[in-house]
């Protein structure tokens, strides 16, 4: 199962690249934009990572424009989560360079990236709003000030009335929303979302994807969304990169076919979307020789 | 109420059998001793009432020792656990010593402590603290170390300082573990107090037990033991109530969806 680095498997960086960027530009302009959070781009050059002897990422190059939503799909265990940890500055890569908002240093990257892990990781001893406002508290805001700041987001994202609820009393979908608000309230220009809905059932998942699409449309953040679900990535992103099995490298790239904010069922059943999904699945199934 | 029925039934049945055996001299005959050496539950109950002021005064002395010694070991144990948690170097250095402290036989060290610290409350506090320290420190340290590593990562991406991570994540995570240790500690603290009083004192339930059994007042001895047990049960229950109020999320709940 070892891949060889010879012979490029697909045309990773070429397909639809410019088209994707254009489409994104057209789409991001109507976003309401949060003036306090600057937008920042992410650049990844020649990134490689190994855990001891185990090579997880062979070579990854990425350019994410400020305000763009980039989807990353790949088989499980291909190092998608590791990629996000590397970008966020939680880990140092063993090869290559990552720059977020022009900063290469890992401590500076940590300042610009908010990382939403797969599990919601809500603190059971804090209410929903105190969980969401955790970053504000860490930056020195008082409890009441941080609640005041978090409150409007509860209203805006359909969570009004749940501010004082304990995480244990919330459904999986609700918990995931609170976790997303916590990521949002960290106030970082770059959001790194690691399979945010992997733990949810199919129906809740579809609801949450629609919810997240709206949330992302309302916030001008640069987003890298990791998923093992092609449909989810295509629906939520401007552009999707397909990763091969470990050790990871990109095996394909495609522009998402339609703007995100329309009703989900309408989009995911369109001919354009189905074609894109097929291309992505085809890239995923390509076996490296 | 259903919850309390099984223990009540068991205790009543056992007391009834004991009462029967004692009043028919079954135990005394079997052991080939004088019947007055085997008190029946009713005689112990009589002693509990007749000696109530004696038991109350000495119980109060023991309670003070237990509370002070327990408080001392909570403060020292938690502080020590936090220091060992924050410094891996100190943890490696002190952990073997911590275990070694548990192998010191209290019965042996108690008389030495009396020689060093006199007949007052001093040696009792040291003995109780020595016994309680271990379960509190080890449990609290385990709690601090068992924090979900993903939570720590998350706190880093949310700009938390080391102290904020400790206060908001590690501390609360360790709280249920601390309470498990404290509940064990408070039960054995009572034994520690008795050891301390045996080694040298002029009051306390341990002292009373020693005197009563030397004078073959077996009913009074048992009455003092009953008071001791009641003390331990009440303290344990008190801690359980505090735990439910302070650390209501319970252990491992960070992992339940």
Written description of the protein model:
The complex is a heterodimer of chains A (289) and B (257). Helices cover 38% and strands 21% of the residues of chain A. Chain A is α/β, with parallel strands linked by helices and 289 residues long. Chain A has a domain at 17-119 and 189-285: P-loop containing nucleotide triphosphate hydrolases (Rossmann fold, 3-Layer(aba) Sandwich). In chain A, strand 6, helix 8 and strand 7 (222-227) form a beta-alpha-beta unit. The longest helix of chain A is centred in the last third of the chain and has 17 residues, at 202-218. Chain A is globular. Chain A starts with 16 loop residues before the first helix and ends with a helix. Mean pLDDT of chain A is 77; it is low at 1-35. Chain B has 2 domains: 1-38, no CATH class; 42-255, MetI-like fold, CATH 1.10.3720.10. Chain B has helices at 5-23, 26-31, 41-50, 52-86, 88-103, 106-117, 122-145, 149-157, 162-199, 205-214, 218-246. Chain B contains 11 helices and no strands. Residues 252-257 of chain B have low confidence and may be disordered. In chain B, helix 4 (52-86) crosses helix 7 and helix 4 (52-86) packs across helix 10 (205-214). By secondary structure, chain B is an all-alpha fold. The chains are: A alpha/beta (289), B mainly alpha (257). Chains A and B meet through strand 5, helix 5 and helix 7 of A and helix 8 and helix 9 of B.
The CATH class of the domain at 17-119 and 189-285 in chain A, by name, is Alpha Beta
Order of helices and strands of chain B: HHHHHHHHHHH
Shape of chain B: elongated
Q: How widely separated are the two ends of chain A?
A: 10 Å
CATH superfamily of the largest domain in chain B: MetI-like
What's the CATH architecture name of the largest domain in chain B? Orthogonal Bundle
Proportion of β residues of chain B?
under 5%
- Sheet with the most strands, sense and barrel status of chain B: none
> Into which percentage range does the β-strand content of chain A fall?
15-25%
> What order do the SSEs of chain A take from the amino end to the carboxyl end, as H and E?
HEEEHEHEHHHHEHEHEEHH
Overall pLDDT confidence of chain B: 88
Low-confidence spans of chain B = 252-257
Helix content of chain A: 25-40%
Lateral strand order in the biggest sheet of chain A: 4-1-2-9-8-3-7-6-5
Count of domains of chain B: 2
